[in-house]
Amino acid sequence: MFNGLAGTETIFSFPNFRRIAQIFVAAAMVSGCQTSDGSFQSSPVDKAAGSSANIDSLTSVIKANPNDADAYNTRGIAYGQAGRLRQAQDDFNTAIQLDPRSPEAYANRALVYRRMGDEQAAIADYTRAIKLRPDYDAAFVGRGNAYRTLGQVGPALQDFNAVIALNSSNARAFYNRGLIYQSQNNHTQAIEDFATAIGLNPNASEPYIARGISYLEINDPNAAFSDLSLAVNLDRRSAVAWANRGLALELLGQPTDALRNYNKAVNLDNSNKLAREGLSRMNRGQRI
User: Fold this and answer.
1) How many helices (H) and strands (E) does the chain have?
2) What torsion, rounded to 10 degrees, do the Cα atoms 270, 271, 275, 281 define?
3) Residue 6: phi, psi to the nearest 5?
4) Which tens digit of pLDDT belongs to each residue from 129-154?
5) Distance from CA of residue 6 to its chain's centroid?
6) How far apart, in whole angstroms, are the C-alpha atoms of residue 125 and residue 105?
7) What is the C-alpha separation between 152 and 48, in angstroms, rounded?
8) 117: Cβ–Cβ under 8 A, 6 or more apart, which residues?
9) Separation between Cα atoms, residue 231 and residue 65, nearest integer Å
């Protein structure tokens, strides 16, 4: 996942519970030669963040500062990281009631809405955050991903372009814009954007996976294999990377290694369609 990025959107900082950043949008790559839902750093659920001891400590801060919006924001982040979305939503609601001009609170609540599958509510909150802070790049990325999930490619592309105009070093924006180009079969432009994202953050697996998929689509299995090998080294639990790496190996005429990669993908995610089809095809002795 994208370390140090968010929109998940950014890693949060907790300086005296001030200037809380955003939490976690999770978005897993779907199986097959397809793109992901998008936000490439998805902070994983961290149950420890929602431990009784941690929550009790944050609750003590709230009791001592019952009108401090940032204190609720902080506890909401802890709940969110632990996957306790309803409690997170309640805390962000309170934070907004106490400070309706906090862009972070709206953006954090938007991330919760995305986790809950309510993209329209997320878009509304991201829009409020952007109105309060017009240069809030993480909110643009989050809203762009919500639009893309709803199939609203035009507004999504506008948001990612806006981020790139604001901050040309934002790897998330290039990655997500690349996913849009990929969905439009514009693989040349997609590969360029994925390459930029990789240059800005070479330790994230998702852009390598996405670029590998585009290379497969333009019939360049050698380049795909290279990218997907880097991806599995960065994230050995990505069924999508293993499955597409298996496809690259199959296209390169290496059936034994392809079979091994397909099996790895299925062991990680039994629903991975690309890997299951590859195994079925190879077990029948067929070729692509």
Assistant:
1) 14, 0
2) 100
3) -145, 180
4) 999 999 999 999 999 999 999 999 99
5) 8
6) 9
7) 36
8) none
9) 45
CA atoms of 46 and 8, how far apart (whole Å): 14
Using an 8 Å Cβ cutoff, are 6 and 41 in contact? Answer: yes
Closest CA to 92 of 23, 145, 2, 156: 23
What is the per-residue pLDDT across 13-45, written as a single tens digit (0 to 9) for each? 232 333 323 333 222 222 334 333 333 334 556
Indicate the residue type of 275. A
The reported pTM is 0.82
Q: Which residue has the tokens 């909401």?
A: 76
Nearest to 257 by CA among 267, 265, 269, 249: 249
- Output DSSP code: residue 49: G
Which structure tokens are listed for 36?
A: 């992901």
Q: Which of 157, 161, 144, 194 is nearest to 27 (CA)?
A: 144
Name the burial class of residue 263, with classes exposed (0-12), middle (13-18) and buried (19+) by CB atoms within 10 angstroms of its CB. middle
Contacts of 120 (CB under 8 A, 6+ apart): 150
Q: Which two tokens stand for residue 104?
A: 């972070």
47 secondary structure, DSSP code: G
> CA 117 → CA 26, 75, 123, 132, distances in Å?
11, 22, 12, 24
Q: At which residue do the structure tokens 């878009």 appear?
A: 123
